[in-house]
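Lab meeting, item 3. Inverse folding demo.
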């Protein structure tokens, strides 16, 4: 992983990005030892807290200057074994770096895990000393001491060269202007979030994934909507590759759930990207059908095709497509063979995900993973 940690005249701390299962990440994923399907880290941003005193659209008006498909992962409330260890293992397996906001007392309690987090390339900020839930109403002296002690605790374990002195997340997002002004005066950047994962709501891991993916909707869906978004994507592929494309997409459709739109759009995007990059096709075809109970998407090309093994080894994103579909109770069928072109058919039930029994969901995901 390229360690392009830029040190400016003042230590600014680092924000580390991961690219969510997307094509441009694949080149970097090739650098991830032993994992050709790694998500990878696309780039490292260096941020000046003076320029971005507060970020996160859940509460504030600004976000980080991210490109489409880029995601910054943040974790707070640790370190806490065995969970932090497991999360760190998964991140390492995918060569993904993230931002951590550690609770001072917990950092002191688990110094090795705290050091491991930093040693594995993650950015470490702080999250108060005792996770005081009351930043919005506690006396300012208490709040200030929580902030200072949290930084001192993490700093005592890690030494000075961390973002502990630059990045802060308020426990429970309990904002209050006086506190935010105080943080800013200390040149501490306040991190809210653009998307929350609801992982504190006692839901299972699959539900966390489902909600998160749905909320990470591509900007194009907001700006253009699904149909125009798909048309634009196909036009871009045609223009950049010279591959002729035919679209059979309705002029209008009934409104679909956001998570369904995201899954459809991401899948089409991934499939078209594979066509552009690997297929050497002269023609592709995209068809979208919306019936009352299901959505069918077909993406076809007349290119060189691939074996399942090639797809897996070269990271065609089919796994991600299957996982997204399974999370919505849908399915993906891929037909491809050497010189026989490729045909991907996606099927999504309408109005199912909310009633999906987690056990069914889990089974279908296991099947996907075993495939
Ligand atoms: Zn917290």
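The presenter then showed the designed sequence:
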């Amino acid at each position: 992983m390229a360690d392009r940690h830029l040190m400016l005249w003042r230590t600014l701390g680092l924000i580390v990005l991961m690219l969510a299962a997307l094509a441009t990440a694949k080149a970097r994923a090739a650098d991830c030892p032993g994992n050709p399907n790694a998500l990878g880290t696309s780039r490292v941003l260096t941020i000046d807290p003076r320029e971005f005193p507060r970020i996160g659209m859940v509460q504030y008006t600004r976000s980080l200057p991210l490109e489409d498909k880029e995601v910054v992962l943040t974790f707070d409330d640790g370190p806490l074994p065995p969970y932090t260890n497991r999360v760190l293992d998964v991140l390492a397996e995918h060569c993904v770096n993230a931002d951590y906001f550690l609770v001072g007392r917990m950092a002191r309690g688990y110094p090795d895990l705290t050091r491991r987090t930093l040693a594995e390339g993650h950015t470490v900020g702080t999250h108060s000393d005792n996770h005081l839930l009351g930043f919005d109403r506690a006396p300012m002296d208490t709040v200030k001491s929580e902030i200072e002690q949290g930084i001192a605790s993490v700093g005592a374990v890690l030494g000075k060269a961390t973002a502990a002195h630059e990045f802060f997340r308020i426990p429970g997002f309990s904002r209050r202007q006086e506190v935010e002004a105080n943080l800013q005066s200390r040149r501490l950047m306040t991190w809210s979030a653009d998307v929350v994962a609801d992982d504190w709501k006692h839901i299972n891991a699959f539900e966390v994934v489902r909600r998160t993916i749905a909320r990470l909707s591509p900007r194009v869906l907001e700006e253009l909507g699904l149909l125009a978004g798909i048309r634009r994507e196909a036009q871009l592929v045609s223009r950049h590759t010279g591959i002729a494309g035919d679209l059979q997409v309705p002029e209008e459709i009934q409104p679909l759930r956001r998570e369904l739109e995201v899954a459809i759009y991401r899948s089409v995007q991934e499939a078209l990207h594979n066509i552009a990059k690997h297929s050497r096709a002269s023609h592709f075809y995209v068809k979208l059908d919306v019936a009352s109970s299901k959505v069918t998407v077909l993406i076809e090309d007349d290119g060189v095709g691939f074996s399942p093994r090639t797809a897996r080894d070269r990271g065609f994103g089919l796994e991600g497509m299957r996982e997204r579909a399974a999370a919505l109770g849908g399915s993906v069928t891929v037909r491809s063979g050497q010189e026989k072109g490729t045909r991907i058919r996606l099927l999504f039930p309408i109005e199912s995900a909310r009633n999906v029994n987690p056990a069914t969901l889990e089974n279908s995901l296991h099947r996907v993973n075993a495939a």
